[in-house]
Amino acid sequence: MIAKAAQQGLSAPVNVTWEITSRCNLSCCHCLSDAGVASPGELSREECRQIVDQLAAIKVFQINIGGGEPFLREDFPDFLSYALAKGLVTCVSTNGTLMDDALARWLSALKMLYLQVSLDGATPEVNDRIRGEGTYAVILEGVASLARHGVPFSINTVLTRLNFPQLDTLRKMAKGYGAELRVSRFRPSGRGKESKEWLAPDKDQLEAFADWLAAHDLVRTGDSFFCLASEARRRKGLDMCGAAKMTCCLSPVGEVYPCAFLQEESFLAGRIRDNTLKDLWDHSSILNQLRNLQVKSCETCSRFENCRGGCPAVAYHSYRDIHAPDPECLMNLRNREGWRNSFAKGMKNGAVRIS
Amino acid sequence: MNVLRKKYKLAPGTQVREEDFGLLFYHRDGPRLFWVSCGRLLESRFFSGEIPLEQWLREKASQTPVPESRLLSLAKTLDQLKEKGVIVDC
């Protein structure tokens, strides 16, 4: 029922990923948004408020704010207060480096707010290689401030080749701060395209991670690993790609995309300065395409009814074809050579296919 | 049937909206989603906690006849939502 309803299109997104700025004080080598400096023409404070009004009116339940680093925007506290007052559950992804006791104290008074602090290693050697020299210590200072003031947060780790061996330690670290560990999937978009070769987890690690996840029920993954998760775990949450079905992504300048990992011109649904989100959600051809995406080569798979071909963004960034199967799904990992050969036969070199 | 005399409202942290298939509940813990395939038999305003289920369904049935089995199934769904902390009776 869920898959069918989602394919037909909900009346509005369940949640919207909103990259509220491209500005960032770090330069992480896997950043999906290639963040650094602010984009020219980022949405103003007033425009952001108007968008929040729209989201509340169409009953979007939750917004996931990311960037860039949201707390670099001077008007971000005002934005947060406004979104929460409008009843939007708000989850903020932050690099944690701007967090101090004063900010944590202010955040602790807000209801319906959740934070995710990014930490990509249990040691400075691993984390700092990914997020930048000296960041490990600064992030943990921020985390300690949040814990001291009782702000609900999770530690978010993008699974990489370097930090896979540290997952147990990361889980214990999070627990020590009263937080949960959330593990996200490395996707080869943004700066991840460049770092994929040395940073993306390898096949053996991904298979081992599937077992690790099955053994650690409380570790959250968002919708990152439905293509890897055990049946028992999948039944607890969304078992398929939510792009255009449950969620969409709003860029710092108001462009609407199916998801944060497909922010390319070919996937642009429209601009919120020209249309309402409701109009784009209901009528955009690219969003409709994603809702009805067919991954033919997966249809005979025993897990197809659940994962529906996996993550189209990973398929696109790997093969320039959103109709390609997710190369990192459990079935493809276990039968990698056979799958790679059969897929390669039907694939023109360098072809781009989105419809 | 006792459940028919109950009134329900959303539990703290729950939101609901109407969809073509029925109702979509969201609970901020998790967050969790609950999909209730009830068409227009239930609407979000039912969860104001003011209208007993029996009265609501009587009004609905006066517009379109509703089979007994459907009503029973609906009562069971509401019970399950209550067990999961999505709604509370009042």
Describe the structure.
The complex is a heterodimer of chains A (355) and B (90). By secondary structure, chain A is of the alpha/beta class. Chain A has 16 helices and nine strands. In chain A, strands 6-5-4-3-2-1-7-8-9 form a nine-stranded mixed β-sheet. In chain A, helix 3 (76-85) links the parallel strand 2 and strand 3 (89-94). In chain A, helix 4 (101-108) packs across helix 6 (135-148). With 90 residues, chain B is α+β, with helices and mostly antiparallel strands. Chain B has one domain (3-85). Chain B contains two helices and five strands; from the N terminus they run E-E-E-E-H-H-E. Chain B has helices at 53-63, 68-83, and strands at 8-10, 14-19, 22-27, 32-36, 87-89. The longest helix of chain B has 16 residues, at 68-83. The radius of gyration of chain B is 12 Å and the shape is globular. The mean pLDDT of chain B is 90. The interface between A and B is medium-sized, with 16 and 14 residues.
N-to-C span of chain B = 16 Å
Enumerate the strands of the largest sheet of chain A in spatial order, edge to edge or round the barrel: 6-5-4-3-2-1-7-8-9
Mean pLDDT of chain A: 89
Quick one: how many beta strands of chain B? 5
| Shape, per Cα inertia axes of chain B | globular
* Helix-strand category of chain B: alpha+beta
* Continuous helix count of chain A: 16
| Largest beta sheet: strand ordering of chain B | 2-3-4
Tell me the greatest interface: A-B, 16 and 14 residues
Helicity range of chain B = 25-40%
Strand runs of chain A, count: 9
Question: Could you say how many structural domains of chain B there are in total?
Answer: 1
Average pLDDT across residues of chain B? Answer: 90
Biggest pleated-sheet summary of chain B: 3 strands, antiparallel
* C-alpha termini separation of chain A: 25 Å
Q: In percent terms, what proportion of residues of chain B is strand?
A: 25-35%
- Helix-strand pattern of chain B: EEEEHHE
What gyration radius of chain A follows from the Cα positions, in whole Å? 20 Å
Largest sheet of chain A: 9 strands, mixed
Shape of chain A: globular
**Percentage of β-strand residues of chain A:** 5-15%
